[in-house]
């Protein structure tokens, strides 16, 4: 068991990091916000943590608080103009945000070391730390998800007109979703910086955006299990497909298309729905009631 | 110096406008944010390039083949990535995701095909003629590009607003189900829209490949990102808006590179997008009808 853990620890840590990013993407998608800004928020968190640790020699907890804080702040700031926009425009603007952050991290060399990235960050967060973060964030999201905020998110996603007619403020809930997404991604970035020794700007570019989006689309965006399942599948899959290295992007692209076309609700949500149907069917068979 | 920079900005801007035309057409008609438009553009450029390399065709034929190639890829893209979603009435978000997937596939295939090389059109594909006037310098090719962009905008506007096909396209853009009731076949309209959009992208691909003297699998990505800013600034699906916003972005970018720093250009261009969304989300040419589609109150 220990040997297994040791040899697969990097993969597990990557899966947990991906799960956190997927949570951040999941929150916005669940609320019907088409934000693609997770990569940008994660970059801000990672750089805040890394700069505090390497340049100012701050303790780990302070770096993580800073990462969490800057992510939250960025989410809130972005939400002010974007919460009142419709889907496609939110997607475009957050894509632009990713580019802005990328261009700052690439070009503000004094602070961010430019394209080389920040190296030799002390590794202070291990497998356990990542696992605790995923469990805490997941639990928190599950609690929020079954509260009135989660219900409001679901209605807004399914039909905005209905949501408005029920007196749910769409901009307000979109803002909450943006802030949650920013906070989770910022924390994820900070943890990753303390976990992986080095960070570079291009890690947090378009590729991350696509992968994270793919995780949630593939996994599902209603239940909390969706992002987890998606993160695990898309972390393990590239390892299994190592022989087809050149075709990794083709596989990823095909996976995105196939899942949005044939499995629009995602693996986890479809499976949960099927399970629920079966439970209802068996309950009906037991009680012997016949419904027309 | 400033005049020369402005002129360069106009050239760069018309390239952006050229690229954004097809993008804004699909956006206006099908309300699809086609994230694969950059790869359609790139495949158009490759179609033209391979035609030149294998059959030694002259410049106008290469442009035509580029248009044909881009159009074909775009139509196939519509069939594979967007039609199944349209049939189901899936939300806008699905088509964004699906087009991202399609763009990954098209990008990766091109990378395999060219073995990640940067390729070039032959040196003599277009004669290098430089005009000088009032101390400004401009190449014949740059003039040709500006001319083609203007021609395309006029042609597209004529097609959309003065022909029967155009009226059908506009009615599908307004409401697909209503146009079905009026006896318009949305299948044929979507075919047209995607082919025209892809052909415009293909022409742009060949021209830009010649101007910048390089054709490679990533050539569409920076332009695609600029095109987002262009269509938001220009206004939802507005064709003159795309041209004017393209010029503006081109000028802003050239001036930033010339007088501030090259690294800042991206940050400034994309911050402009945020500013527009904050101050006037419908863009320069978005009418009152666009307000409801952009914002919620």
From TrEMBL, chain A:
Pfam families: BPD_transp_2 (PF02653). GO terms for molecular function: branched-chain amino acid transmembrane transporter activity. The keyword Transcription does not apply. Keywords: Cell membrane, Membrane, Transmembrane, Transmembrane helix. InterPro entries: ABC_transp_permease, LivM-like. The keyword Transmembrane helix applies. It is a multi-pass membrane protein. GO terms for cellular component: plasma membrane. It is found in: Cell membrane. It comes from the Bacteria. The chain crosses the membrane at residues 33-54, 61-82, 88-109, 121-144, 175-194, 206-237, 249-268. Its main location: membrane. This is Branched-chain amino acid ABC transporter permease. It comes from Kumtagia ephedrae.
TrEMBL record, chain B:
It is a multi-pass membrane protein. Keywords: Amino-acid transport, Cell inner membrane, Cell membrane, Membrane, Transmembrane, Transmembrane helix, Transport. The keyword Transmembrane applies. InterPro entries: ABC_transp_permease, BCAA_transport_permease. The chain crosses the membrane at residues 6-29, 36-55, 61-81, 93-113, 143-161, 187-212, 224-252, 258-279. GO terms for molecular function: L-isoleucine transmembrane transporter activity; L-leucine transmembrane transporter activity; L-phenylalanine transmembrane transporter activity; L-valine transmembrane transporter activity. GO terms for cellular component: plasma membrane. PANTHER family: BRANCHED-CHAIN AMINO ACID TRANSPORT SYSTEM PERMEASE PROTEIN LIVH, HIGH-AFFINITY BRANCHED-CHAIN AMINO ACID TRANSPORT SYSTEM PERMEASE PROTEIN LIVH. This is Branched-chain amino acid ABC transporter permease. It comes from Kumtagia ephedrae.
